[in-house]
Amino acid sequence: MGGKVNVDLSVGDVKVADYEGVAFIGGPGMVELVENSEFVKLAKEFYDAGKLTTAICIAPVILANAGILKGKKATVWSGAEEEIKKGGGVYTGKSVEVDGKIITANGPPAAEDFGEAIVEALKTSAFSPLR
Q1: Which residue range is the domain that position 27 belongs to?
Q2: What's this model's pTM, rounded to 2 decimal places?
Q3: Distance between CA atoms of 20 and 26, rounded to whole angstroms?
Q4: Which of 7, 57, 79, 81 has CA atoms 20 to 30 A from the CA of 96?
């Protein structure tokens, strides 16, 4: 859309130990990336480390593809519900869903509530500066 962003860290260089969590943000360009092996690996690494693993819009499909939604409540952009179910997730249809360290949201109208849910979750993290 004409915007420019300076990238100072590639996905493959992220060290899970350096962060409290990860947020995957959806949007039109993310549709092609929900099976990206680096994103899927990163989601699994954060989840396996017991860290906050979040996604909004179409991006919760990344979490499903990482196999971390099995038995977990989740939501996603309209039309991608089956992808959540295929990944073992329990699709709820809520605008924001919190299930332990996993937070999902269904799109732009839920962005503010999604952000607030992340802040609340970070407040309970042992090493968070928000605590």
Answers
A1: 20-123
A2: 0.92
A3: 20
A4: 7
